[in-house]
Amino acid sequence: MLEVFFEHDKETISFCEHLFQYNKRIELYWRTHEEWGNHLQLEYGKAGIITETAAQSMVDVFVIHRLADMINGIIKDDYYYSNTEEIDRIADIALWLFYGEDGDSRHVRKGKDPSQLLKSIITGNLENADIIHFDSIVTFQTKIFKDQLIHLVGLAIDEFKREEDHQAFIDSLREFIVTRKCSYSTVHVLQGNPFTFFKPNGKRFTRMELRLLMHNEPLYMVGLDEEELNLAPLVAMAPKKITIYGDHPSEPKTLTVINVFQEKADFKPYSSFPFFNYLKNKN
């Protein structure tokens, strides 16, 4: 038998819900203890199964009810942020890093999984005692986990700063474009590495034409150089309309162009490209 104490009713209910979600064969008895709050008694035939189930359920309780507050506390107390909007954005990124199963979040946190560390801490406590106080574990046994969480919040702050720098770069490009004379009313763009650019009549821009256009504009003022052949040509031309054709609307270079030019930029599937004859003839 395993005895577990929770101070807060919501956490107790959450623990029970997750416990039965993982294993409906566990017998549970719940009563109130005057000093220690909610007292749960868990019974199951095999000790290992109840330990695994209880440990994962406690991790779920912590993630649902405690994680956000701990992250916010770290942002304020360890990294000294006080601006509410900045705290909220950093917390969102930190939670994405914590939960994320996508390649980007795994790459940023270098494959580490803080929830597994938390689970191992709780499992160790369950294996060494028959009576467990959830609040005691959170207060006194999670230093290693919190250290890893502090590191993760640091990574989130790095991502936040990169986002800020990127947005400042985008804003500077928008301001620059407003001041430029439009060289072409419409530019058609085919996705690729680099992009391929076409004039309103369907003729392809040659590499020499692109370099001349970029050479005639002070792109260095906004941090672009003439070797960048995706965004820089469009900034130099400052067209009134850009249509990008391809099969990857979320491709990063494409998203950047759309972010910079906003309503002036449009994305269409590759099959909608209107100048395939010019493309085949390479004119």
Automatic annotation (TrEMBL):
Pfam families: YtxC. InterPro entries: Spore_YtxC. This is Sporulation protein YtxC. The lineage of its organism: Bacteria, Bacillati, Bacillota, Bacilli, Bacillales.
